[in-house]
Design a protein that fits this description.
With 119 residues, this protein is mainly beta. It is 0% helix and 54% strand. Strands 2, 4, 5, 6, 9, 10 and 11 form a seven-stranded mixed sheet that branches. Strands 1-3-8-7 form a four-stranded antiparallel sheet, with no helix packed on it. Strand 9 and strand 10 (105-109) form a beta hairpin. It is globular.
């Protein structure tokens, strides 16, 4: 059974920092590209950051230079360090795992964690 446990969300003032963590179980973690998406009220879900199985990273333009994604294959965790937070970062953040074997596409999502940036 695939399970993600997300933690670290909450309320923070503009300019502050939060660290999201996602612990995955039930998958061959090291074989998956891991990512964080977010969805703000009334907006489409968007990719925030992704890290491949080989460690390559991608960031949305809106978070470059402020957010850092990392993974620990020994612990089956992926983290998102969020710095210099802005009110527009307010959203539900989702942990994702994707693996394309060529024969099949595996795509899993966590339940989401709320991040609110407000004074």
């Amino acid at each position: 059974q695939v399970q993600f446990v997300e933690s670290g969300g909450g309320l923070v003032q503009p300019g502050g920092s939060l660290r999201l963590s996602c612990a995955a179980s039930g998958i061959m973690f090291r074989a998956y590209a891991m990512g964080w998406y977010r969805q703000a009220p009334g907006k489409q879900r968007e990719l925030v950051a992704r890290i491949t199985s080989g460690g390559s990273t991608f960031y949305a333009d809106s978070v470059k230079g402020r957010f850092i994604i990392s993974r620990d294959n020994a612990k089956n965790t992926v983290d998102l360090q969020m710095n210099s937070l802005k009110p527009e970062d307010t959203a539900v953040y989702y942990c994702t795992a994707v693996r394309n074997t060529g024969a099949a596409l595996y795509d899993y999502w966590g339940q989401g964690t709320q991040v609110t940036v407000s004074s």
